[in-house]
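step: validate -> pass
step: tokenize input -> pass
step: predict -> running
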Amino acid sequence: YARRIGWDWRLLAALIYEESQFDAASCSWAGAEGLMQLVTTTGLRFGALDLSNPEQNVMAGTAYLQYLETHWKDIPDSAERMKFVLASYNVGEGHVRDAMRLAEKYGADPFRWEGNVAVYLVKKSQPKYYNDAAATSGYCRGTAAVTYVKQVLERYAHYRQRIEAG
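step: predict -> pass
step: emit ->
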């Protein structure tokens, strides 16, 4: 499925590890299920009828990632775009768009992750920012999403150093 969306399989594996530690029976407190930790509505939207089925879960999860890649096509740099995709996979694209608008409003670069959009995603846990007119998706635990992006990319770098692309 990684090949279908143009991803290095090691990047997809890093995301799956972060989501479920490769446990197909994993279920989160929020009701996300399976290898890629999809909620029922997302699974159904992207073609999975049974989220406990690893193949259906990965098929739907990668279809969602492909959707997010298209959603973030306005981020010109592919390495930067990946950070927006990963953050959106974790916390939803609405919160990431809010952070972009907040970054722009407060003089940061809305197309750069580190020190810019990531900062405002973290700030979305503060009333001043999640109640700001530029933020339409409300409160967000942005620290978790920023940490998630960092951990997936670090694990991917580790996999690239240790495992052949094959």
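step: describe -> The helical segments are 9-20, 40-45, 54-71, 78-91, 93-105, 113-123, 127-130, 142-162.
step: cleanup -> pass
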